[in-house]
Design goal:
alpha+beta
Amino acid sequence: MVRTVALGALLMGSALAAGLPVKEVVLYKNGVGYFRRGGELGPGQSARLDFKAADMNDVLKSLTILEEGGGKVTGLRYDSSEPLARKLSEFPFQLGERQPLSALLDQLKGAQVELTLGAEKVAGTILGAREVAGDEKQPSREQATLVLEVGDLRTYDLAAVTGVRFTDAVLQSQLKEYLGSLVVGRSKEKRSVYIDSTESKGRRILATYVVQTPVWKSSYRLIFPESGEPMLEGWAIVDNTSGEDWTKVRLALVSGRPVSFISRLYEPRYLQRQVAELPEEQAAVPEIHAGAMGGDAGSTPGAPPPPPVAAASGGAMFRSARKPMAAAETQREVTSSIAAAAEGREMGELFEYSFSAPVTVKKDESAMLPFLQQKVTARKLLVYSGGSSEFPRNAAEISNSTGKTLDGGPITVYDGNAYAGEALVETVKAGDKRLISYAVDLGTRISTAVDSSRDFVREVHVSRGVMTTRSAVQETRTYTIRNVDKKPKTLMLEHAIRPYYTLLKLKPAETTTSAYRFEIKLAGGATEKFPVEEERLYETSVALVNVNPDFLLSYTQNKALGDAGRKQLERIIERKAAIAANDAEILRADQELNEVVRDEQRVRENIASLNGVSGQQELVQKYARQLADQETKIAALRDQLSELRNKKAALESELNSLIDKMEF
């Protein structure tokens, strides 16, 4: 009984903080949600906001507070991330599991306490407390011994005590703080933020912040009726994992991905400090002055202002069907009986859907909310993108004529009040269009063949002695399209864009980042051939001084070369041919000179061998005459070689001059 009275009185002091209900939720595609809370507070009352522990970093980064009524927010308090055991170890007492009151009082020896025993109150100093074991005659009991103000020592049975109050305000505050830490520690996932104010009268508090939330999802239904314009329905899927109910909140959904990140602000940070030792005679302590980083000392973290919610017309979010049930079942109506109570507006690069009617989503539940039901511009056609299949796909070209951004998601297609298939679509801005494919068309077959490929020179240019040629490879790919059905069709043929290839003759209906799109009308039961011609350009460069005349001669016969260029190349060919003929003469004269020199060496050896032999004088004289003729011939050949080399130098100089001057 004593323990219940004491703890209840202490906890009443910690319940003065009022929670603020959620008023507005804005969900983004980057995985965060903007929340606005508000509520009325009584005089002197603090506001309390409860969060998941994992969300505290985002809260400390984005929380903003507005107090209406003239008061000023004096500060924020929040539950520390320090471990509970470490936090409790700093108190001068400990409360264990199932610990009796006598154990607590015994830890507080010397504290001033006031005990209530019926109508009597006894004040004194705690000397000690204990639990006395019982026996067969008397059960166990708790006792406390006090030193009274008159100096007497007196022991009291705690079973007779109806109230315990510590007269030391510091101790009373410590005990209350200890119990508050236990309450927080029991909920490992929850953290509280307390907002204190200087205002002593009642006032209204508004708080906004950004925390992590599940990404909202969108799905669509594209309905092609048997007659009339197509209809597009959009549904938003919202998950409430915040841990509390969203009751009649203003809900908005934003398409777009603003930059968001996590900054570790909640966990305490400790820095390793340097130890500075001072000589005994030195009185001053070390002082280090940091350089200035800017004029402002700091700023208060803040969240972006709450996006205004556009007013929406319309009634309830859902409405009942107007026709009797039997008629509705007979008609097989596909369009949902809903009233899309959401309006959209541009927010810079973002787009917001806001619901005019309040929305309620219970915690740990999800909701499916209609945000669009509008007629759109759409047409049915076929799409063929190549690949392994010979069949194109049934598709639809949707033009976003809704005036709103359509967030990306799956689309279920209904054709003539029957399920036709499914597709995925990326985010589509207002006025843009997308192509979606949702089924395979077995009534159309397409085959592909490369019909021809040829290579030819497109351009020839010479500059600064370098000849640059641009050649082209042309390729024709023919699509053979067979429409088996008797009804006419429209085919959107996607031809892959290949690097370095350019399209010839044809002009595509539109171009994507990876393909050309050609729109082809197919007659019923007919076969159509659709050739696509492309070419690739190659560029090669060679120095004119390094090529032979035959190589240049092949280019003089090319139609891509103009008359002026052809004449310049012909002069180059003539000079190169003259140099080649002169080189041949030099080679011939050099070979002849080598033969004469070798023959002369042989004659000299014969003369040397016959000089010491008697009767060989006549033969020696003959060899001597041959030797004289050879010397004359050698001299003539050397003169000829010199002239030929001089001629070559002149021809090469003339050739280089012509090459340097060439430009076409």
